[in-house]
Amino acid sequence: MIALLILGTGGAVPTRDRSPSASWLTIDGRSLLVDPGPGALARLVQSPHGPATLDDVDAVLLTHLHLDHCADLAPLLFALHSVVLVSRRPLQIIGPRGLAAYLDRLRDLYGDWLTPRSRPLEVLEVAGGDTLGPDAAGRWSVGGPDGAGSLEAFAVEHGEVRFSRENLGWRARDRDGRTLVLSGDTGPCPSLTAAATGTDLLVVECSTPDELAVDGHMTPSRVGALAAAARPRRVVLTHVYPAAAALDLPALVREHAPVAVVLAADGDRFEVTGDPPPLPELRKALP
Length: 287
Ligand SMILES: [Zn+2]
Prior knowledge:
Blueprint: E1 2-8, E2 22-27, E3 30-34, H1 40-46, E4 59-61, H2 67-70, H3 73-80, E5 91-96, H4 99-110, E6 121-126, E7 131-134, E8 140-142, E9 150-156, E10 167-173, E11 179-182, H5 190-196, E12 201-205, H6 220-230, E13 234-238, H7 242-245, H8 249-254, E14 260-263, E15 269-272
Parallel strand pairs: 3-4, 4-5, 5-6, 11-12, 12-13, 13-14
Antiparallel strand pairs: 1-2, 1-15, 2-3, 7-8, 7-9, 9-10, 10-11
The protein binds zinc ion (ZN).
């Protein structure tokens, strides 16, 4: 089973309703903190659907290194330097090539303050096309054991090359073959269409209205064209800036594709199960 708790559905600019990116992805009982943007740690432990403590975060999964997707990496490492946290399990940080150099730059500033006190730190750089699997202890590795879920990276079109040579999307698959695709930040591109083709749940950014379209991001008509080509079973829209959030985005997407689509809200949790619920019951919002 795959579940995705979306902690932040906004873009780089926080609003009252939408925080920057962050989510908690669970694949067959193994969880990863995805794209911890600003404020992600607090929202993670405050959510009734998240872990009770940062001791339960064993892996961080990154799409790219823009601050609205990774600003809470340093606070996470700083927190793990504290004596308050006691886990001794390894912490894995998984992301695009360039991630290790990025963390080195942070250590240039903060030194040992970013060294977890009791946990080995493993940095795993991944290229588009790589597939990761978890071992029995839940440790992910490229080409790791299959059959207990997997994560496949695909390169997307987002333009940033300052920190990493690629920006990634992720396709999660559980042991029963069900899939969830995270677009990351991207414009339309063949790799996104390929990853989304036939997926059970496509979680895709929809940053701006069509009138404010920019390279490297999606709009309602771009998502609609993607859905028409890839035919995902369901679509969840996220990474929404205020001008887009003011629109009826699902209706705009459906003008291009007859697809089940909802706009996510902060705190929504989506499950990928063998028998998807009808759309109105798709959202399991916080009370
Ligand atoms: Zn970005």
